[in-house]
Design brief:
heterodimer; A: 415 residues; mainly beta; Rossmann fold; Neuraminidase; four-stranded antiparallel sheet; globular; B: 182 residues; alpha+beta; 60s Ribosomal Protein L30, Chain: A; 2 domains; four-stranded mixed sheet; 7 strands; 37% helix
Chain lengths: 415, 182
């Protein structure tokens, strides 16, 4: 019996943090939480919108069973009767400050005691979603759960508005807030240039040759980085922001190149005569990328400076996009090959250290997989039955969340 | 967890307060526009295109008309689903394009624009469009068009001629277009 339990314990420890292992069912039930609105300002429409946003954020934390009933009370009153049996009550007060600033005060109540008190202030109520995301982030921190830093990050995407015309937009992770940062011409494949999200790279196709540009979001000034005949895309930025993986085709041959931001020097990493694109840093010395060297697109890895290439995926006959974070790679796989009707594209997760494959989606066209910087979540776009949604997959909680999109067709996305 | 966290100080969300201050950059305009200005719906050309327009303005109208006429005469090359080899039924079109390139259009540079259908919205799709342009380039070179007169660009799925969700429509978008540059 001791041997059996020791073995069980060993296996538990072995797979405890492997994201490719799917958690089918959690034994413990989640604590309940209710929200109580004690706002002093704003109309009922805005108050209800804020409530729904905050409730959705708490739900995405995957730490609580979130009560969906809307209750109003005074900030210093006792918990409303309907919420007496809740494990937690989050009470918040919205009030309008000087120059239309939005002030938010919260208290988290547990067993009739205030266990967390905080105040927030932003200069416009139009960006209220970021306050809701920050409140959820702070509650997650208070509960001691793994970080959801990605919740506060901004999403960057390009959308095609008509043939050869596009816009680049900054949004929150639910796309509820959207700000067009770049318009005019055809600008595609935006990629954040640093962790603080103060600038981004993008491809301009408005000139004679594809051109990689850099735009500072605070000043609005852009500068040209590099151009290439045929194709130019910034596929990934290294963790220290100093190196870029570019797809270029100076001779009409798409390959992955490594670009040094400081020296402006670049070198070719892949040399296959077919298609090599979508380079992703696994670490400073190794990249994952998409290649058709087997006759169909698939995921491969290669040490920078070495010519030997390793096939990463042995499942699927068309794996045309990937995102890497540490040992994990998420890739898009076409599960049908039909020129005459709809095709299904699903996302799968693999680890470079094990042979497991975890399928992350089951239906529709799932594309643009992007890891959060901390690897906790994957952002993606789902198209299913004429409805497009932005999806969040929380790997360690085995939960997917979808936010309906009403913005046209996304060309590329980053966060 | 039960300890009381008190945060008396107001937490200013500086990062997010910055959001509304971020400018809208209109590549159409010569200077970036501030957020206080309403988004302009009027379509204008980007700075790069503006430069090209200036260059064009220096040429004669006749030249532009000639280029436009020749572009219409050049046949678009269509491709099969997920393929970048030139189909047998497109071979004659490539040959007639090559004749035109070496004849009436010999004074111009040829820009090959690779395009794809909507089944793929990632870099691979752009690379597929590029490979289609490259195959067409190689076929033109084989028929005697000087390689230094040809440039290429891929628009992936961002330049459809047809947006219906039908087989006929998708096949119209898997193509290489010919553009002429002075």
């Amino acid at each position: 019996m001791k041997v059996f339990f020791s073995l069980l314990l060993f296996i538990s420890i072995l797979f405890a943090n492997d994201a490719t292992i799917e958690v089918i069912k959690k034994v413990e039930s989640l604590p309940s939480i209710a929200l109580e609105d004690a706002s002093l300002s704003y109309d009922s429409t805005f108050k209800l919108t804020f409530f729904k946003t905050l409730a959705a954020d708490l739900n995405v934390l995957s730490l609580f069973n979130v009560d969906r009933h809307y209750n109003q009370t005074d900030f210093d009153d006792r918990v409303v009767v309907a919420n007496k049996d809740m494990n937690y009550v989050l009470r918040y007060k919205l009030s309008e400050g000087d120059n239309n600033a939005l002030n938010v005060e919260i208290k988290l109540i547990n067993n009739e005691k205030n266990v967390l008190l905080k105040k927030y202030k932003i200069n416009s109520k139009n960006i209220y979603v970021f306050v809701a995301h920050t409140i959820a982030y702070d509650i997650n921190e208070f509960m001691g759960a793994p970080s959801v830093e990605w919740m506060k990050k901004r999403v960057l995407f390009s959308r095609v508005v008509k043939s050869k015309k596009s816009e680049i937009v900054i949004a929150d992770y639910t796309l509820a807030y959207q700000h067009v940062i770049l318009k005019g011409g055809l600008n595609l494949f935006p990629k954040w240039a640093n962790k603080n999200q103060t600038a981004f790279y993008y491809t301009s196709l408005s000139g004679k040759k594809p051109l990689l540009k850099y735009l500072d979001t605070s000043t609005g000034k852009s500068k040209s980085i590099l151009s290439s005949d045929g194709m130019m895309v910034c596929s990934d930025v290294s963790a220290d922001d100093k190196m870029l993986l570019l797809t270029m085709a100076p001779e009409g041959q798409p390959d992955v190149y490594l670009y040094n931001v400081a020296t402006k020097q670049y070198k070719r990493v892949t040399t296959y005569g077919g298609i090599d694109v979508n380079g992703q840093f696994i670490d400073n010395n190794t990249i994952a990328f998409i290649s058709n060297r087997l006759g169909y697109p698939n995921v491969f890895s290669q040490k920078i400076g070495s010519s030997s290439v390793e096939q990463m995926v042995y499942y699927g006959k068309s794996n045309s996009a990937c995102s890497a974070r540490g040992e994990y790679i998420v890739y898009k796989s076409r599960e049908s090959s039909n020129a005459f009707s709809d095709n299904t594209f699903n996302l799968h997760l693999i680890s470079t250290k094990t042979d497991f494959i975890r399928r992350l989606t089951a239906t529709g066209v799932n594309e643009f997989p992007r890891f959060s910087k901390d690897g906790d979540a994957i952002l993606f776009v789902k198209n299913y039955q004429s409805q497009s949604s932005l999806g969040i997959i929380r790997l360690n909680h085995n939960k997917n969340y979808l936010f309906p999109l009403k913005i046209g067709k996304i060309q590329s996305i980053d966060w | 967890m039960k300890s009381i966290f008190l945060s008396g100080a107001v937490i200013a969300l500086l990062v997010f307060s910055g959001c509304s201050k971020e400018p809208i950059v209109d590549e159409s305009a010569s200077q970036p526009q501030g957020v206080t200005q309403p988004a302009v719906d009027t379509e204008t050309v980007s700075s790069d295109i503006a430069t090209m327009s200036d260059e064009n303005a220096m040429g004669s109208d006749t030249n532009e008309m000639k280029m436009a006429k020749l572009e219409k005469e050049m046949a678009t090359i269509y491709f099969d689903f997920d393929k970048f080899v030139i189909r047998a039924d497109m071979q004659d079109k490539v040959s007639s394009d090559a004749k035109l390139a070496n004849g009436a259009a010999s004074d111009f540079t040829i820009k090959l624009e690779g395009n794809c259908d909507e089944w793929g919205s990632d870099e691979y799709n752009f690379a597929l469009g590029l490979k289609r342009a490259n195959t067409t380039k190689e076929a033109l070179v084989a028929e005697g068009v000087p390689v230094n007169r040809i440039s290429m660009v891929s628009y992936g799925e961002t330049n459809p001629t047809c947006t219906d969700k039908t087989q006929a429509c998708w096949s119209q978008n898997r193509r290489v277009d010919f553009k002429l540059l002075p």
